[in-house]
Amino acid sequence: MRTIAISDVTMKKAGSADFTLSFREKIELSKLLDKLEVSAIELHPIRSEKIDSLLVKSVAAAVKTSVVAVPVALDAESVRTTWNALREARSPRLQVEAPVSPVQMEYLCRKKPEAMLAAIRETVAACRAVCRDVEFVADDATRSDAAFLCDAVRAAIEAGAQTVTVCDTAGSMLPDEFSAFLEALRAGVPELDGVRLGVSCSDELSMADSCAVAAVRCGAAEVKAAAYPCGVVSLPNLARILDAKGSAFDARAGVRMVQISRITRQIVWLCQTNRSKNSPFDNGVQEADGSLSLTSADGMPAVLDAARRLGYDLSEEDGAKVYEAFQRIAAHKGSVGSKELDAIVAAAALQVPPAYKLQSYVINAGNTIGATAHLKLTKHDKPLEGVSVGDGPIDASFLALDGIVGCHYELDDFQIQAVTEGREAMGQTVVKLRSNGKLYSGRGISTDIIGASILAYVNALNKIVYEEETV
Predict the structure, then answer these.
(1) Residues 72/52, Cβ–Cβ less than 8 Å
(2) Cα-Cα-Cα-Cα dihedral of 217, 219, 224, 229, to 10°?
(3) How many CA atoms lie within 13 A of 366 on its CB side?
(4) Quick check: 304 and 314 in contact, CB under 8 A?
(5) Does position 439 have pLDDT exceeding 60, yes or no?
(6) Is the torsion defined by CA of 81, 85, 90, 94 positive or negative?
(7) What pLDDT shows up at residue 289?
(8) Helix locations, 246-357, DSSP H
(9) How many CA atoms lie within 13 Å of 254's alpha carbon, on the beta-carbon side?
(10) Which of 59, 278, 304, 331 could form a disulfide with 30 if both were Cys (CB 3.0 to 4.6 A apart)?
(11) CA-CA distance, 438 to 55, in Å (whole number)?
């Protein structure tokens, strides 16, 4: 029985659809999809080399089973940049996406048919030179000239593409029309028998799932789908259809059916997390990965790899400081988990002269009034202050800090830990901020947990400012 590969495009659609995902949520989503054992996890193309490359590297490190697929533009520089970010993935795939309909070729790429064919050949060949798994994606294929589409697919296969995907971008075809389209393409390009044929269907007419099933019946081996509704084929729907009726046409879904309901519910929750535009708390990760456990027997490479998996990009100097602090703590308490390692990084790495210093704060909160925060800081001895209202005292404090700084940084994580016991116990907080894709953590300790939270935020903020001012 044929196993139909399902390539998930949820992350690629985030932002363009009606939902957004934070950096941390994208990593969590990739882990969930990997547990589901989808064939491939598709990311959006690298637009900002610094930020997007870090995301690709982070997803590549998190994914253990699935292919990680990233599109490239039709030029050699994009291939180089994308491959440098993707090369450490266990199963990397480069995707060459090219419009093949006359309208899109002219208005999106400003290329004539002959120039587009040359660009496809050159880009696929450049990808094949560095990566064994190369996919050619023919955008808007159902509205292309039939002869040109055959030429484009043939050129991609000759240049080394192992997967060819044709897209009904407009979503204008019914299942029988899509079947006829694929049969005509196979007849026109016999070389397709030697590669994997994939399909992508828009749900404009609410027929994407049916068209995907029709394509599988016609011999398609891979389908682009989404675990969260994104206007394309529904991953859970397609998997259930193939599970129930696939034996009739010798096909089964290549995902873990036992876990599909639970994992897709988690993904839907992740993508539907309600975010207040006025709140810094903007990620919907339900639970941290508790699988990290290090002991004093672990060497520096293992500790730094664990820090990298948590999202930190440490310099050689900071890595040595973190490992030294890790050894002291591991020798005392036996094992170190992810929260402890976060605190170690916050305390030991990138200790910088403080640009921002906390002078005072006044918090008003109660069960009958909204929380307000009035903060006074100095930046290089210049007095600054901000006032904000929030859903709680910490929320209001962080919003006031955003107002003072004049910039909103993604709050990747916020942790509260008890350091001592008793009525006057010390509380420790760890705040993780993300700027330009890079993670910065700060630590604050106080008997007042709100004060500790503000200090941790300011500590992380100073690390960001120091790097920005020294670049």
Answers:
(1) no
(2) 0
(3) 3
(4) yes
(5) yes
(6) negative
(7) 47
(8) 260-271, 300-309, 316-333, 338-348
(9) 22
(10) 59
(11) 9
